[in-house]
Design goal:
The complex is a heterodimer of chains A (143) and B (827). With 143 residues, chain A is α+β, with helices and mostly antiparallel strands. Chain A has 4 helices and 9 strands. The relative contact order of chain A is 0.25. An 8-stranded mixed beta sheet of chain B has the order 3-5-1-12-9-10-11-22, with helices on both faces. In chain B, a hairpin with a 2-residue loop joins strand 24 and strand 25. Chain B is globular and about 90 Å long. The two termini of chain B are 33 Å apart. The chains are: A alpha+beta (143), B alpha+beta (827). The interface between A and B is medium-sized, with 16 and 24 residues.
Chain lengths: 143, 827
C-alpha cells in the first residue's frame, strides 16, 4: 500500500528535522502511546493502542531512523505486531522551506498482514494518512 | 445394470402413505416457527447461558503459512478476569488427532483443535477463556506468538506441483485425493464424433453463503458427571459426534447436544467440530462452561468457504445433429488448508455426472489439493454446483461454437420424460422429471421470443448496451448414500442413510414430535406437523414439534443433521413412520376400550372412534389416561404392548456402491431447477443488470409449497450473488483480501431481481411421500448468468470461463482480442 501527502506547518525545516529524526523526541509525538523504550540514537520501541476506524488496535511498534539528511528529510522504517496482524512500513519525510514555515511532503509504503489487512482494504490508506499527519502536526507544535 | 425396481413392499408402503397424506400435506399453511421468530422470541446460540460461564476468544494466525516457534501466554494469563488459556501443543497432549475421511496419504494428516503450524490466515493457534467476551479478545492480543513465515500456495493446480510449499509435512505433498472416473468409452467417442470442442480452462470461484447468525457454541465439560453438554448451532451434530468422541476419548453417551434456533447455515456450520473440541478442553481445564460466539470477521476468515474448482483440457465430442456424447477433462479442487469434510466433495459431484443430459462417455481425472486458504465446507449445492456449472458451460459453448440453438440443443440432449427412471453412466438413478417441459416453462416466464426481439432491437440501437439471454439447467440431488464415501476410501465403515423421529401421545392427549434434523430455517416444525397431522387425523396446530435438535430425545441416527437436501425424504418419512406406529398403538388401546378390532378404529379431530358409529368413541386424552395412569383397566397384553412413545427410523433403499468401478446409486432423489434470464450489459462499464429472471423447480410432491417457494428464492439469490458479487480473493502470500462486507458484497434484496417462479410436480417413485429433497438449488443462477453474458458478448467472443463475473471481468471480455479459450475440430 502506497500513501502520500503534504502538510503545511508553521515550524521551520530545522525544527521539524530535529523533532522527527530523534527517537527521544519522536516518542512524544506518537499518538496513543502506552510506553516507549529508546534503544539507541536511531531506534525505539513503542507500545500503543491507537483508536482508528477499525476500533482500538493495540500494537507493538519497532521504529528505526534509517536515513537522515540534515534539515531536508528523514526516513523511518519499522515493523509492528498486533495479536492478529503484523505490519511493516517505510516512511519518507521531506521538509521544504516556505518562508519561516515549511511544507512536509511525505510518502509511506506499508504492508499489512492478517485480519487488519483483510478487513481494512478500503480504510487503511486513510487511517495511515491520518496517523502520519497527526505525527507531523504534533511535531510542528509540540505540547 | 443397477436394479432400480422398487420392491413390492416399498411400493405398497408408498401407495398407502400417499393415500394417507393430503388434508394438510401439500398446503401452504403458515410456518409454525414464524410466530416466535418474528416476535424476537427465538432461542439462538448467543442467547444460551450457563452458570459460571466464561467467554472464549480464538487467537488466529495473521500469516497464510508459518511455523510457530513459540507461544507465550504469560501476559494474557496475568490479566485479572482471565480464567485460562490453551495452545495447540497443550491441546494436542490431551486429545487424539481428528478422524480423517481421506485415504492415505492424506489420512496421515494430524489435525488437533488448535494449530501447531499456521496453514491459513485465520488458523486458530491459541484460545483464551475470560470473564467477558471483550476481555478474552483483549487478553488474546497479549499472547506472543513467534512465527516463522513460509511461502504459501493458493492455487489448487500449483499445489499439486511437487515443487510447491507443502502444508502438511507428515504426508509429503499437498495431495488430498486423486482418482479417475471413467464411464463409457470416451476415446471411442472422441474418435468417432463429427466435432470435438476443446476448452482450455474453466474456473469455478471461491465464495460462501452468509448466514445472518455466525457460528457459536456453549460447552460445559461437567467434572462431576464427565458429560459434555454442547449447545451449538452446528448443522450436523452426529457427524461431529463421530469425530469428537474418538478425539476427546469420550463415549457417545457423554456428548449431549442440543440447540433450538439457527440463523441460517447453508453447509457452513457443518464442520464446527474443531472449535467445539477446543471449547470442551478449555472448559475442562477451567472447570467452567466456555462460550464462543464467532465474530463476523472470524466467520469470513475461517468459518469455511465453498469449493473452488479448476477444469482443464476439456474435450467434448459432438455429432452432426447436435448429440453430445460426453466429455473428458481434468479437475482440480481446492480443499483449503484442512480436510474438515473433504475429500467427500471428490465423489459428491459424481451424483450428477452427466448433469441433466444423456451423456454416455465421461472421463474425469480428479485431483483435490490442500492450499493455504480457509478450509472448504459443503456450501449450498456442495460439489455438484461446480460440476453442473461446468456442464452448462460445455453445452452453451457447443451451441455457440457449432451454431446450434441453445434451447433446441438442450432439449435434444436432455434426459427425456420417457427415460425415467434413468440410469446415468455411473449407476445413479434419476427418479423422475420432465426437463423439456420445465425449460419451456422457464422460457415462458421471461417471454423468450420477446426477449430475442428486444436483443435485436437493442443491438441495432447503438445505445452501448447489449442484451443477453441465458439458460441454466441443474439438479439438486438429495438424500446421500454414504456408501459413496467408500469410492473415496474403501476402508470407511459407511453406507446408506437414515433419519429418526419420535411421535408420542402425551398424558393429556397432546401429540409431540421430535426430529433428528437440525433445522436452519427450512420450516421443519411446520412440514413435520403437516404429515403427522394427516396420519393421526389431527390439525397441525395440535402437533407440537420440538424446535431444534436434542440428542436426549433419542431421535437420531449416525447421519442425523440437516444437509444434502434430504429432510423432505428422510426426516419427513421418519416422522410419517413414527406417526403410523403411534396410530397403530392408539388403535390397539381404543379397540380394547371400545370392544372392537383395531382395524375398525378411525382417528379424527382428536377422537378415536368405531368406524361408522361416531357415538362409540374415546378421545385421545382417554387413550393417554389408560396407558399412562390407568393401565389396570387395560388387558395386560395391550398394556404391555404399547408405550404411546413411538420411534421410527426411515432407511432409504440403498446398496453399497462399487469402489472399484465407482458405480452405484449415490443419492435417492433428483429435484430439477431450470432458470432463464435476460440481462443488459453495459459496453462502457461491463456492468450486468438482470432485466428478467424465471425459475422453475420440480421437487416432486411439495409438502408445503410456500416453503418450497422460499427455498427457491433463497437459492436463486445466493446464486445471483455468487455470479456477480461474491468472491473470496487471496494474495499469493495467502492473505484474504476481502474479509469485510465492504469488499465481499454479500447479496442483498437490492441486488436480486423480482424472481418469477413456476413449478412442476413429478413425484419421486422412490420415496414414500413422493417428495424430493430441495433447497440447495444446484447453483442454477451461476450457469444462467454466465450463459446470458456469453450470449450478450456474441459470436466469436472469448469464452466466459469463470463463474464469477464482476464488471471488470466482463469489461475485459468485451475488449478481448486474444485467445478465446476454445477451439473446434470438425471431421
Amino acid at each position: 500500500m502506497m500513501v502520500g501527502g503534504r502538510v503545511a506547518v508553521e515550524a521551520s525545516c530545522e525544527e521539524m528535522f530535529s523533532r522527527l529524526s530523534d527517537p527521544r523526541k519522536l516518542e512524544d509525538l506518537v499518538p496513543a502511546v502506552e510506553w516507549v523504550e529508546v534503544l539507541d540514537e536511531d531506534s525505539f520501541t513503542v507500545s500503543m493502542a491507537p483508536s482508528t476506524g477499525l476500533g482500538i488496535t493495540p500494537l507493538k511498534l519497532r521504529v528505526n531512523v534509517s536515513d537522515r539528511r540534515d534539515n531536508e528529510g528523514v526516513r523511518l522504517s519499522g515493523e509492528a505486531d498486533g495479536g492478529e496482524f503484523t505490519a511493516a512500513f517505510q516512511l519518507r519525510l521531506e521538509f521544504v522551506p516556505d518562508g519561516q514555515a515549511s511544507q512536509v511532503r511525505w510518502s509511506a509504503e506499508a504492508r499489512f498482514v492478517g485480519l487488519l489487512s483483510s478487513i481494512g482494504q478500503r480504510v487503511l490508506p486513510a487511517i495511515v494518512a491520518a496517523q502520519v499527519e497527526a505525527v507531523v502536526r504534533q511535531a510542528a507544535s509540540p505540547t | 445394470m443397477t436394479d432400480f425396481t422398487a420392491p413390492d413392499a416399498v411400493v405398497e408402503t408408498i401407495e398407502s402413505v400417499q393415500q394417507e397424506l393430503g388434508r394438510w400435506t401439500g398446503k401452504s399453511i403458515p410456518r409454525k416457527e414464524d410466530r416466535r421468530l418474528l416476535k424476537g422470541q427465538g432461542q439462538f446460540v448467543d442467547d444460551a447461558w450457563m452458570f459460571r460461564q466464561g467467554y472464549v476468544h480464538f487467537l488466529r494466525s495473521p500469516h497464510g503459512h508459518a511455523n510457530i516457534r513459540s507461544i507465550d501466554t504469560t501476559k494474557a494469563e496475568a490479566v485479572p478476569g482471565v480464567y485460562a488459556t490453551m495452545t495447540g501443543a497443550e491441546m494436542a497432549e490431551q486429545c487424539e488427532p481428528f478422524f480423517r475421511i481421506a485415504p492415505d496419504p492424506a489420512a496421515r494428516i494430524e489435525e488437533y483443535p488448535l494449530a501447531l503450524k499456521a496453514r491459513f490466515q485465520g488458523d486458530a493457534v491459541a484460545v483464551v477463556l475470560a470473564e467477558t467476551r471483550e476481555l478474552a479478545r483483549d487478553a488474546a492480543e497479549l499472547i506472543e506468538v513467534d512465527y516463522e513465515p513460509l511461502p504459501a500456495v493458493v492455487d489448487a493446480v500449483r499445489a499439486a506441483d511437487p515443487r510447491s510449499p507443502v502444508l502438511h509435512e507428515e504426508i509429503g505433498s499437498n495431495l488430498a485425493w486423486h482418482g479417475i472416473y471413467d464411464y463409457g468409452d470416451i476415446d471411442w467417442a472422441l474418435e468417432n464424433a463429427d466435432h470435438v470442442v476443446r476448452i482450455d480452462r474453466l474456473h469455478f470461484h471461491r465464495f460462501s453463503s452468509t448466514p445472518l447468525e455466525c457460528q457459536g457454541a456453549l460447552v460445559n465439560w461437567d467434572p462431576g458427571t464427565d458429560q459434555i453438554e454442547i449447545l451449538s448451532n452446528i448443522q450436523f451434530p452426529m457427524f461431529a459426534t463421530q469425530v469428537l468422541g474418538p478425539s476427546l476419548g469420550v463415549g457417545q453417551d457423554q456428548l449431549l447436544w442440543r440447540y433450538q434456533d439457527s440463523g441460517g447455515a447453508f453447509g457452513n456450520k457443518i464442520a464446527m467440530y474443531p472449535q467445539i473440541a477446543a471449547l470442551a478442553l478449555i472448559s475442562r481445564k477451567a472447570g467452567r462452561p466456555a462460550k464462543w460466539t464467532e465474530y463476523r470477521s472470524e466467520h469470513m476468515l475461517s468459518c469455511g468457504m465453498g469449493n473452488e474448482r479448476t477444469f482443464l483440457d476439456i474435450e467434448v465430442p459432438v455429432m452432426r445433429d447436435g448429440t453430445i456424447l460426453g466429455f473428458r477433462m481434468r479437475a482440480f479442487d481446492d480443499a483449503g488448508a484442512y480436510l474438515h469434510y473433504e475429500p467427500l466433495g471428490a465423489v459428491i459431484w459424481s451424483q450428477v455426472v452427466p448433469g441433466c443430459y444423456r451423456f454416455k462417455h465421461v472421463n474425469v481425472d480428479y485431483t483435490e489439493t490442500l492450499t493455504n486458504k480457509c478450509p472448504t465446507v459443503p456450501n449450498r449445492g456442495y460439489s455438484r454446483l461446480q460440476h453442473l456449472w461446468m456442464i452448462e458451460r460445455l453445452v452453451d459453448t457447443v451451441a455457440h461454437e457449432l451454431e446450434f440453438d441453445p434451447v433446441q440443443l438442450r432439449k435434444l440432449n436432455y434426459v427425456q420424460p420417457e427415460d425415467y427412471p434413468y440410469e446415468t453412466p455411473n449407476g445413479c438413478i434419476y427418479d423422475s422429471g420432465d426437463l423439456p417441459l420445465t425449460l419451456d416453462k422457464a422460457l415462458a416466464l421471461i417471454d423468450y421470443p420477446s426477449a430475442r426481439e428486444r436483443q435485436r432491437s437493442v443491438a441495432s440501437s447503438g445505445a452501448g448496451k447489449r442484451i443477453g439471454i441465458g439458460i441454466g439447467s441443474t439438479l439438486d440431488s438429495g438424500t446421500n448414500n454414504f456408501g459413496q464415501a467408500r469410492i473415496i476410501n474403501p476402508d470407511l465403515p459407511f453406507s446408506g442413510n437414515g433419519e429418526a423421529a419420535t411421535v408420542r401421545l402425551d398424558l393429556y392427549g397432546e401429540i409431540f414430535c421430535t426430529l433428528g434434523s437440525s433445522p436452519t430455517g427450512q420450516g421443519h416444525e411446520t412440514t413435520a406437523a403437516q404429515v403427522v397431522a394427516d396420519i393421526l387425523g389431527a390439525s397441525p396446530a395440535d402437533v407440537r414439534v420440538h424446535a431444534g435438535f436434542n440428542k436426549e430425545h433419542g431421535a437420531y441416527v449416525g447421519f442425523s443433521g440437516t444437509y444434502a437436501s434430504q429432510f423432505a425424504v428422510t426426516g419427513i418419512n421418519a416422522a410419517i413412520g413414527a406417526a403410523r406406529l403411534l396410530r397403530a398403538e392408539i388403535a390397539t388401546v381404543a379397540a380394547a376400550a371400545l370392544q372392537c378390532e383395531g382395524a375398525d378404529i378411525q382417528l379424527e379431530a382428536g377422537v378415536a372412534s368405531y368406524r361408522g358409529d361416531g357415538e362409540r368413541a374415546i378421545p385421545l386424552i382417554g387413550i393417554a389416561n389408560l396407558v399412562y395412569a390407568n393401565n389396570a383397566e387395560l388387558p395386560p397384553e395391550v398394556a404391555d404392548g404399547v408405550s404411546l412413545n413411538c420411534r421410527y427410523v426411515y432407511r432409504p433403499p440403498f446398496q453399497v456402491p462399487d469402489p472399484v468401478t465407482k458405480r452405484g446409486n449415490l443419492t435417492l432423489t433428483y429435484a430439477v431447477q431450470i432458470h432463464a434470464c435476460v440481462i443488459e450489459l453495459d459496453e462502457q462499464t461491463g456492468q450486468v443488470r438482470i432485466l428478467d429472471y424465471g425459475a422453475v423447480d420440480d421437487c416432486g410432491n411439495r409438502i408445503n409449497p410456500q416453503i418450497v417457494e422460499g427455498q427457491v428464492h433463497g437459492a436463486t439469490g445466493l446464486g445471483v450473488g455468487a455470479a456477480l458479487y461474491e468472491a473470496f480473493n487471496y494474495s499469493e502470500a495467502g492473505q484474504l483480501l476481502n474479509a469485510s462486507f465492504y469488499d465481499y458484497h454479500a447479496v442483498t434484496a437490492l441486488d436480486v431481481p423480482a424472481i418469477k417462479t413456476d413449478h412442476l410436480e413429478s413425484p419421486s417413485p422412490f420415496t414414500p411421500n413422493g417428495a424430493k429433497g430441495m433447497g440447495e438449488g444446484g447453483g442454477a443462477p451461476l450457469a444462467t448468468i454466465c450463459s446470458a453474458i456469453q450470449d450478450a458478448l456474441g459470436p466469436g467472443a472469448e469464452l466466459v470461463s469463470d463463474s464469477h463475473n464482476p464488471p471488470e471481468r466482463v469489461w475485459r471480455l468485451l475488449r478481448s482480442t486474444g485467445a478465446r479459450g476454445v477451439e473446434v475440430q470438425t471431421r
